[in-house]
Amino acid sequence: MDRREDRRRTGERARDAAAPVRRLSAPVVCWIFVLVAIGVVQVVRMQWFDAGAFVVAAAGAVLVAIGLLRRPVVRHIALPWLAGAAGVGAAGLCFLPRHGLAMQVAVAALGVLGVVLAWSTATIARPDAPTALSRGILRLALTWAVIVVAGCVWELIQFILGLVEPDAAWFSLSDLLNPVVDGVPGRVVFIALWVTGGVWLLRRGGKR
To answer: Does the CA dihedral 46-50-53-59 come out positive or negative?
Structure first.
């Protein structure tokens, strides 16, 4: 199994190295625009860390899409190891104070690790089986796109209204979740769902 995995990874590296620079497709351009737009909003809000994160994400998406940033090589990670590591990370988050530096660093580290694992295809359930872009997959992608864009629009509207009427009460998505996650039970449930959803997404599908 290890030899087959090594051969597969070696073949992928060779194909990636020989691949020409690709043009950006329309869907990729749309998502890059979303990342850049969110980054601009964070600049206006003077949230420099968030702005930098979105700018880096947009730049990385461009480099990956055109083929200049190669996929990292990571050995396949079985579900028990992935779930165990996720459980340890979730348990650690439950003990960190909200909005503290430690929580921010931990969440950022988990996010970066998740991106690397997803990009490397090291955690998917079927590493040798390509995922067909069926109508169901496309509908699911469209649904998630609508949800993400709707959330971004909500945040932007609340920010603009806050500038227009600073004395009124305007609520971002995190403000709406505050009553739920302020208590320990709600925080534990939220973190468990968040980490479980991440593991599920990392395991979905085959090589793309």
So the answer is: negative
